[in-house]
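Hi L.,

You mentioned the student needs an example of a multi-chain input paired with its predicted structure. This one should do, with 228 residues in total across all chains.
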Amino acid sequence: AQSVTQLDSQVPVFEEAPVELRCNYSSSVSVYLFWYVQYPNQGLQLLLKYLSGSTLVKGINGFEAEFNKSQTSFHLRKPSVHISDTAEYFCAVSDPGGNEKLTFGTGTRLTIIP
Amino acid sequence: DTAVSQTPKYLVTQMGNDKSIKCEQNLGHDTMYWYKQDSKKFLKIMFSYNNKELIINETVPNRFSPKSPDKAHLNLHINSLELGDSAVYFCASSQLRVENYGYTFGSGTRLTVV
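Structure written out for the whole complex:
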């Protein structure tokens, strides 16, 4: 069975500062990895995904994430955050070729301080 | 055109009632899902259908019954609603071919049981 751990439930960051949201996963098989963002009272929007190839993945809104197989991590980063980045961020993992369900972490609330 | 659409967006109902949530996707995806997001924002899969066939049925009370009339629709019927059913329910569909692997979510249905 696969699982996802997001250790930080809340991350406050000053505007224009860099941010890293941590995600670790556990799985006995190869995985696909995703980051989703949920703005207040809205649905889930895909930020980026890792399927294969380059371990550094670039997404929308200036976000990027790095897949590290040895550390089973997929941390999300942005060099300079904006007020509009305030949202809930979810890391998720799927098991390609298995039951294909998407398993989510518990989410990290990113709050940008003006 | 909305890729994954759910109706209604909000649903307020009394305990004991029966209600349905509808979901339609126009992406041509073969697999559809229902996820539940609780008050702590945790997202958990409930059901998954592939081409009208049930393939994932997590530990969900029998009061919840999914129905897939065709591969573009996945509805969720809930009998004898309880206070604990209050949550946001998300429908999703997925493209599982390697070259375009991904999941698309609807905007959610906020169910409030009073």
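You could point out the following to them. Chain B is about 0% helix and 60% strand. The mean pLDDT of chain B is 92.

Best wishes,
N.
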